[in-house]
Design brief:
The protein folds into two domains: 10-27 and 146-227, Endonuclease Iii, domain 2 (Orthogonal Bundle), CATH 1.10.1670.10; 36-137, Hypothetical protein, domain 2 (Endonuclease III, domain 1), CATH 1.10.340.30. It is an all-alpha fold and 229 residues long. It is built from eleven helices and no strands. The chain is elongated, with a radius of gyration of 19 Å. It starts with 9 loop residues before the first helix and ends in a 36-residue tail after the last helix. It has helices at residues 10-23, 36-45, 51-64, 68-72, 76-83, 89-106, 115-118, 126-137, 147-155, 164-174, 180-193. Helix 5 (76-83) crosses helix 6. The relative contact order is 0.14.
């Protein structure tokens, strides 16, 4: 499938998110946590893993390691066993335990509240940083671009890029800052419910008359979306 042209203007982007907000009024993060550190742990575990699976693993994990100090003194092999089901557990354990020491030693036991500082933690890139800052501290410094956001932004013509950083910049330029935080979860919800990776349900999509990719998939015979009602 060819990459679509970017949205003509911010007005079109605003209409897209207005409609998604109507369909998903309660869109929010699915990961479960009780404090900023637990959120950071959950976010790192969610890399290449479903939020559902992470939520199955974290209750026992958070019970065994209730405070930051427990992570600082954790045995790596035992910790790996606890998170094995999330996949890539060697790398994730290394990132989480290394970040725990950094948070304790460099930041006084408090997860950083700025983009510059939080990006110094192991396993934390801009997507994770935006999720943590926005949900833990209500600090919005960008838009979290995960696999759903990347896919939908491209399909909807909101970007020509595939690199998450460039996609984030395009979305930030199209949307008012007040909508940055919510936009991630609206796209995630829509990506899970309708605009899925392998079987998009364009016939049920509230954006079908303004999305350049509508019905342009094999299951629809790549019909012209302009002919749909």
């Amino acid at each position: 499938m060819k990459t679509q042209q970017p949205a003509a203007n911010a007005k079109n982007a605003t209409e897209i998110f207005r409609r998604l907000k109507h369909v998903y009024p309660d869109a929010k993060i699915v990961l479960r946590y009780s404090n900023p550190w637990q959120l950071l742990v959950a976010v790192i575990l969610s890399a290449q893993c479903t939020d559902k699976k992470v939520n199955e693993v974290t209750p026992a994990l958070f019970k065994k390691y209730p405070t930051l100090d427990h992570y600082v003194s954790a045995d790596p092999r035992e910790f790996e066993t606890m998170i094995r089901q999330t996949g890539f557990y060697h790398a994730k354990a290394k990132a989480i335990l290394a970040s725990a020491k950094m948070v304790k030693e460099r930041f006084g036991g408090v997860v950083p509240k700025t983009m510059e500082e939080i990006l110094t933690l192991y396993g934390v890139a801009r997507k994770s940083a935006n999720v943590i800052l926005g949900n833990a501290y209500s600090i919005v410094d960008g838009i979290a671009v995960d696999t759903h956001v990347r896919r939908l932004a491209t399909r909807m013509g909101l970007t020509r890029h595939h690199d998450p950083i460039k996609i984030e910049r395009d979305l930030m330029a199209l949307l008012p800052k007040k909508n940055w935080f919510t936009s991630t979860y609206l796209l995630v919800n829509h990506g899970r419910a309708i605009c899925t990776a392998k079987d998009p349900r364009c016939d049920l999509c509230p954006l079908k008359n303004i999305c350049p990719s509508a019905f342009q998939f094999p299951k629809f015979g790549k019909r012209n979306s302009g002919q749909q009602t």
